[in-house]
Every structure is written in C-alpha cells, then in structure tokens.
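Annex B. Sample input.
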Amino acid sequence: MPAQATRSTDHPLVPPLTAEVFKLGQALPASAFAATSIDLYLTSACNRQCSYCFLSESFFANRQHMSIGTVAEIVRWTAESTIEEITLLGGEPAMHPDFVAIVALIKAAGLAVRTVTNGSSKFRAAMTHGPTSAAMDRVAVSLDVPNPELFDQLRGRGAFKDAMRTIELLALARKQFDINFTVVKSALPYVRQMLRFAEDLGARRINMHWFSPVGRGKLNAQHETVSSDEWREVLDVVAGYSPSRGDFIVDCELGYELGYRGEDRKMCAVRDRTNLQFMPDGSVFSCGMLVERPDLAGYMWRGGGLHLRQAESEVTRTATPCGGCPMRVKVAAVSNDGAPEPLPLCIYNRLDRSPAH
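Annex B, continued. Sample output.
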C-alpha cells in the first residue's frame, strides 16, 4: 500500500529555537560560499499533508513566514558573490502573504527567481498577475507518479489535478518548468513511464530524488523507503533512457556508490559550501538531510548576517574529509540480500548522463 497523505499528531514537537540553543559565531560573507543558487523556505504553511515530506511536523505546526525584511537582507547579502538565483520553497511558497512582493524584490535585484510548488491554486493565482509571471524564470512542479489515484493517495485529494492545472498554465504562458520527482517505493513501477510523461508534458527537466526517510517521512512513510538494490534498478532505467526531445534533461540523484558515472564519495555540500537553505526560523543549512533538526543547523541568520554556529552541527560533523555521507549512515538500511549497504553519497551527487568518450 502506498503511504497515505496524513498529519501526525502523536509525537512531541521540537522545542522552538532559543538564544541558548544557538550561540552565534563568526559572520560570513556570501563570497565565502561556492553556491550559484540558494534556497529560501519562505513559509511553513502548506496546502498538502504529504506523508513522505522530509520536513518535520514541528516545521509545519509553527506556521512561520520569513519576513519580507529578512528576504531583502538576504538579497543584499548575496551581492559580490557567485549567487545568481534564489529558489523559493515552503511548505507551499505561494501561501506566504507577501509572495508576489518577494518575487518582485528578488527580480529587481537582478537575480533569477525559481519556485518549487505543488501546483496550488494560490500559486496559479499569483501567476495570473502579469509582472509576477514575467519575473518567474523557472518553476518546478512536484509530481511523483503519472497515476492520478496513486498520486492523490500519496499527497492528498486533488493533488494530481492541482499539479496538472499548474503545468497547463505554465505551458500556456510559455514558462519554462521542471518536474520534481521524489521516488518512493510505490512509484517504482512508474519510473520509465514518469520519464516519458514529463517529457511529453513539455518539461525542461525532470529532477529525481531518492526518498529520504526523514521528517514526516521517518514517522509516516518508512515503508516507502527505496533500498539500494531498488535504487540500482532506477539508475539503470535512467541511464538507459533516450529522450525524444534533444532539450529534455534527466537529472537523477546517485544515492549510493554503485559503480555509475559521476560518483564522488568525497563530495559534501557542507564542507564544499555549495548549498545554503534558509529556514523561516533563521536556521540555515547546507545539507538537506538535516532540515528536520534545527539544532544541527550549521549557520543562523541574525541581525542581517549569516553566522557560523558555535555548537555541534552539520559543519562539525563534516569538518574532516570522510568517505561517503556521514548524515546518511544511520538512515540507510541493509540491502535486500542482508549484505551491508553500499556507501551512501551526498544527496547532491548526480548521475552523469553525458555521452561517454
């Protein structure tokens, strides 16, 4: 059975952040990072109850919005750096009361605007506003199976219809869009079909993720975890897929060290400083595997600046080079044949599908 869209209420919430939890250290300029794009989680409000979301119940329960003043500070902070794009996420980013103004603010600063949406009616309403639509450079729509009934079971009633209506609107507006595909166990029979479906819809890119059993997923959807053996089969399908459109991009997480092109066991978004995710509560992460744990954030946004936390964090856990991702060691299970799991790789390590030389 697929995981059902649900709200879990049978466990305590993580306590809110306090000054005692986060001791602020060195302030860092944006130029200290090698990122070209950063993520702003604008709001914890969401119109869906996806059982396998990597964010925690406490994140959604707090119903926090990042202030437009904080967004403006972060935009100013990106000056004199390699950052060219800001991605807006949630929750559902369009549920932020100042979503339209935030899009305009970022665009006015000369940065590209990308939004990740579940296809909500609020997002479609925002896109009917001409200047907002014009300011949106890229949109990624979350869509995990081409089967409407199964997708609604996974993400909630009406989820498939919402996603498809939004894709149709984007296509009509000639707006470039991607499909974000979280591969859960229920979606495994549909992987090849999903690749073709995304291409036929006119997507520029399909972005495939191994389901990370953290946040809500750890509580409600452990049975949707994809083993390394099953992920190998997914990679085989992806590696062998031949798009009919020359401009269609298939971008897939490697997940494990399984012998595929592109594997880099030394890659680490935290240590390499190639990724930043700003949360509404001020915590800032480099690793997406830890956003359910504010106490392990590597940085904090305070007083208009990014500060290194002086406490155990994602930064201290990756301070020395390591083989494979230390954040995922406890997440990975044994393989189907009982053998030890292959080495887990950084979630940002992607399959190399370029022609072999």
